[in-house]
């Protein structure tokens, strides 16, 4: 991948709140068309990094380039153009409780684009269908939706402006195993059909094993390792080893064979 220019490049990023240093000298690249899984122990700063990339948190040092543009050097028009090419699904969906599903999806459209209410409505309905929601759900409020429907509605809103990259913060948290697997399949399908790049913060081992192309591990305030699953399983860092090869881990028969361990069995499901 080194010959391909990253769609997102983070260099030497330092973030702290008061005296609490959360990220220090952190580097990360995300490449066009990939699904990158971003993992780490709770409280290590996974969501902080995502929010920093999105410009929602201040950083004290380092650079962030998106679509080849240093965000610090971008003028207002360029910043808006960058924002329009990014979609975000926040943890728990973060839908506006006073708005219907369709109205929630229309929020980015209203913020960035001038169009007639009827066209805006039709676009919101199309995005709903894209993520597997029915048009009958358009006038429902978030309180009337299941957890899986909330995630899909939030994903439809993230896709409202046809972004090039989407940021997903714990997209399968709170879903049952079947719902989580369906959501993973949806993410993979959207990547393949729309050519999306996906930056996914997750704790879900099933998601990491089933849909990610690469995984980045956050620890000690920086990225400890980045690579595919085989690369992760070859690491000797104690946390990485425990996470990917511990009691709740899944097995990769091809990897086991390559390591001379023989095939342990088929991949088994794990809980969240």
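Sequence proposed for the structure above (272 residues):
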């Amino acid at each position: 991948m080194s010959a391909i220019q990253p769609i997102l490049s983070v260099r030497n990023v330092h973030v702290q709140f008061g005296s609490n240093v959360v990220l220090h000298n952190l580097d990360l690249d995300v490449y066009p068309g990939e699904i990158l899984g971003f993992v780490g122990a709770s409280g290590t700063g996974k969501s902080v990094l995502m929010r920093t990339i999105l410009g929602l948190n201040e950083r004290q040092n380092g650079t962030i380039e998106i679509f080849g543009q240093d965000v610090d050097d971008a003028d207002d028009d360029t910043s808006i153009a960058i924002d329009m090419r990014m979609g975000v699904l926040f943890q728990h969906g973060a839908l506006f409780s006073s708005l219907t599903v369709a109205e929630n999806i229309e929020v980015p459209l209203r913020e960035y684009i001038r169009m007639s209410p009827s066209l805006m409505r039709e676009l919101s309905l199309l995005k709903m269908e894209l993520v597997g929601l029915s048009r009958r759900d358009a006038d429902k409020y978030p309180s009337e939706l299941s957890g899986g429907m909330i995630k899909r509605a939030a994903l439809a809103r993230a896709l409202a402006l046809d972004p090039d990259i989407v940021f997903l913060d714990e997209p399968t948290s709170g879903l049952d195993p079947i719902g989580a697997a369906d959501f993973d399949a949806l993410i993979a399908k959207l990547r393949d059909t729309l050519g999306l790049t996906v930056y996914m913060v997750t704790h879900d081992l099933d998601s990491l094993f089933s849909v990610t192309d690469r995984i980045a591990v956050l620890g000690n305030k920086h990225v400890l390792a980045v690579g595919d699953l085989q690369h992760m399983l070859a690491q000797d860092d104690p946390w990485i080893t425990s996470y990917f090869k511990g009691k709740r881990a899944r097995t990769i028969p091809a990897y086991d064979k390559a390591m001379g361990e023989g095939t342990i069995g088929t991949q088994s499901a794990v809980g969240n």
